[in-house]
Design a protein that fits this description.
By secondary structure, this protein is α+β, with helices and mostly antiparallel strands. It has helices at about 115-120, 260-280, 285-310, 340-345, 355-375, 440-455, 470-475, and strands spanning about 1-5, 10, 45-55, 60-70, 75-80, 85, 95-100, 105-110, 115, 170-180, 190-195, 200-205, 215-220, 225-235, 320-325, 330-335, 340, 390, 395-400. The chain folds into 3 domains: about 1-75 and about 125-160, no CATH class; about 75-115 and about 165-235, Immunoglobulins (Immunoglobulin-like, Sandwich); about 295-489, Orthogonal Bundle (Transferase(Phosphotransferase), domain 1). Helices cover about 20% and strands about 20% of the residues. The strands form 7 sheets. The chain has a 5-stranded mixed sheet with strand order 7-14-13-10-11, with no helix packed on it. The longest helix has 23 residues, at about 285-310.
Length: about 500
C-alpha cells in the first residue's frame, strides 16, 4: 500500500492515465470441501492488502479486504542525538546530577526510540476506504464496481483500518527504576507499562540521601514484537562544598638556624643556576610565548567541546572548565574508573569467558555509536585507537583523543610537526591528516576492532611503521584476530 499525503492514510495504488498498478499476486481458488489456501511472501517490508473476490454461478460478486504488515528485517533503533534525560536534574551537569528536591525524578526519552522502516513507510497510519476500480461515476453502468462494503472491510485485529497510536512507530513503553549502584544489565522483573502511551514519566523517590544513585531503564516495543532497552542514571547531592580553614605555620626565629629552610634551598638553587649559566648549559626559554600558545589551544578546545561536540553516552563527557591564575584554563572531564581500553584488553588475555566476549561486542558497538555521533557533528577524529578509548565503571566505551583541528606538519621546526600513528590511519592520511574525513575514521575504526578482538595486540604485527604504507599498496592484510568468528572475516 502507498501513503497519501493529501488524505493522510494508506491506500492501494490508484489507476490513472499513466499508471495501471498490477497486483503482486493473483490466484484463483475453486470452492470444494477441502480448500487449499494460497500463500505469498513479499520481497520486502510493507503494509499489504489482500482483496478477496467471491463469485457464485450467476457471476454475482462480493469483495472483502484484509490488511497485514509484513516485516522480517527491521528493528528498533536509538538516537545518538535525542537521549534519555532526567529533566529534574541540573542541565549544567548534562542531566546526571539532581541537586534540589529528592521527592521525584522526571524522565524524558522523546525521539530516542524509533523503528525507522515503519516510520518512513507510515505503517501505522489509518487505512483509507478502498477506491472502486473501473468506476464510470455515480450514474455510469459500472458504478461502485468492485466496491468493498464497510462490513466486509478489515475492522478486526491489531492492524486494521484504524490508526494505531504510536510514537515514532513505537506502540508501547515499559520502565523500571531502581535505587543503587548503576548496572549494565537490565532487570527481568518489575517492568511497568507507560499508560497512556507517552515518552516521559515521573518516578517517585523514597529515602534518597546525598551520594545515592537511581537508574532508569526504558524498553520500547514495536508492532512486530521487537523490543529495545536503554537506560540512564542520575546521582543525588545537595550538600554545599566544604572549605577548610587555612592554617599558617611561621618559621621559628630561635631555632638552630636564624633563617628558614626555604632560604637555604633558595641559596643552593641560585648557586646552581649561576654555575649552569657560566658553563653555557643554561639557555633562556620563551616561557611567556609557550604559555600563551598553550592557553589559546586550551581555550579553543573548551569552545570546541562546548559548541560543536555536544553530549553522547559513548563520547567522553565534557563537564565544564575552570580558570586558574597560575595554570590557566583547565577542562573538567568525565571520570572513567576502568581506565584505557588497550590496557583492559591486555589484562583480560588470561581470563577469557563468554561474558568477556559479550563485553567486547558491546564495546565495539558503543564505539560505533560514538563515532556515528561525531560524524553527525562533522567532527573528524584523526586519532582513533584503543589507547584513545576509556571505559567507565560499567565498561561503556568513551571516545577521547580528538580536538578542534589537526597539527600542521609544514613548519620548519621539527618539534611542531604532526606525529602520525601510521598503523591506525587510512593510506591517504599516512603523510598528513590534513585531509582526513569520515571515511578515514572508518578505516581507523576497523583497526580498533582488530585491536579489540586480538586483545590489545599492536596492528600489523612484525612490521615497523615505515613498512606499512608499502605493504598496504601491495595488498597486504592482517590475519584474522584471535576472538573473531570466521563468519565475519
Amino acid at each position: 500500500m502507498e501513503y497519501s499525503y493529501d488524505n493522510k492514510g494508506l491506500r492501494e495504488p490508484l489507476i490513472n492515465r499513466t499508471f495501471n498498478p498490477v497486483p503482486l499476486f493473483i490466484q484463483e481458488v475453486n470452492a470444494s470441501d477441502i480448500i487449499s489456501f494460497p500463500t505469498y511472501a513479499p520481497d520486502g517490508p510493507g503494509v499489504y492488502s489482500v482483496i478477496l473476490e467471491v463469485n457464485d454461478k450467476a457471476n454475482n460478486s462480493k469483495y472483502s479486504r484484509q490488511v497485514a504488515i509484513y516485516d522480517r528485517t527491521s528493528n528498533i533503533s536509538t538516537s545518538s542525538i535525542h537521549l534519555i534525560d532526567v529533566t529534574t536534574a541540573s542541565k549544567l551537569t548534562n542531566f546526571t546530577w539532581q541537586t534540589s528536591q529528592f521527592s521525584k525524578i522526571d524522565v524524558s526519552w522523546s525521539g530516542h526510540f524509533m523503528n525507522e522502516v515503519h516510520e518512513k513507510g507510515h505503517f501505522l497510519e489509518k487505512i483509507l476506504d478502498y477506491v472502486p476500480r473501473l468506476s464510470d461515476g455515480k450514474f455510469g453502468r459500472r458504478h461502485d464496481y468492485k466496491k468493498i462494503l464497510p462490513s466486509f472491510d478489515d475492522n478486526d485485529g491489531v492492524r486494521n483500518r484504524s490508526f494505531i497510536p504510536n510514537i515514532k512507530s513505537i506502540i508501547r513503553f515499559d520502565t523500571v527504576g531502581r535505587q543503587g549502584i548503576p548496572m549494565s544489565t537490565f532487570p527481568k522483573t518489575a517492568w511497568q507499562d507507560v499508560t497512556p502511551l507517552n515518552d516521559n514519566k515521573s518516578f517517585p523517590l523514597m529515602d534518597i540521601r546525598d551520594g545515592d544513585s537511581y537508574q532508569i531503564w526504558i524498553r520500547a516495543h514495536d508492532i512486530m514484537g521487537n523490543s529495545k532497552v536503554d537506560y540512564t542514571a542520575v546521582h543525588f547531592d545537595r550538600s554545599p562544598p566544604s572549605v577548610s580553614k587555612v592554617k599558617i605555620e611561621y618559621n621559628i626565629d630561635d631555632g638552630a638556624y636564624p633563617f628558614s629552610r626555604f632560604t637555604v634551598v633558595l641559596i643552593v638553587v641560585i648557586i646552581v643556576l649561576v654555575f649552569l649559566g657560566r658553563t653555557g648549559r643554561l639557555q633562556p626559554a620563551k616561557q611567556h610565548d609557550q604559555n600563551e600558545e598553550a592557553i589559546m589551544k586550551m581555550k579553543a578546545k573548551i569552545n570546541f567541546y562546548t559548541i560543536k561536540v555536544g553530549r553522547h553516552k559513548n563520547v567522553l563527557q565534557f563537564i565544564g572548565s575552570v580558570e586558574d591564575e597560575v595554570r590557566g584554563p583547565m577542562m573538567i572531564l568525565e571520570y572513567c574508573s576502568k581506565g584505557v581500553l588497550k590496557q583492559f584488553l591486555e589484562a583480560i588475555k588470561s581470563n577469557i569467558s563468554v561474558d568477556i566476549d559479550e563485553r567486547l561486542y558491546r564495546i565495539v558497538f558503543g564505539i560505533c555509536l560514538g563515532m556515528d555521533f561525531l560524524a553527525s557533528k562533522k567532527v573528524v577524529h584523526r586519532r582513533l585507537a584503543a589507547r584513545n578509548i576509556l571505559l567507565n565503571g560499567m565498561y561503556e566505551p568513551k571516545i577521547t583523543g580528538f580536538g578542534p583541528d589537526y597539527i600542521s606538519d609544514e613548519g620548519d621546526d621539527k618539534s611542531e610537526r604532526e606525529r602520525i600513528p601510521i598503523k591506525w590511519l587510512a593510506p591517504e592520511c599516512m603523510n598528513s591528516t590534513k585531509h582526513a574525513n569520515e571515511l578515514s575514521d572508518v578505516w581507523s575504526f576497523g583497526i580498533v576492532m582488530w585491536e579489540i578482538f586480538s586483545l590489545g595486540e599492536t596492528p600489523y604485527p612484525g612490521l615497523q611503521s615505515r613498512e606499512v604504507p608499502g605493504k598496504i599498496k601491495q595488498g597486504y592484510k592482517m590475519k584474522k584476530p584471535e576472538r573473531c568468528d570466521d563468519a565475519y572475516v
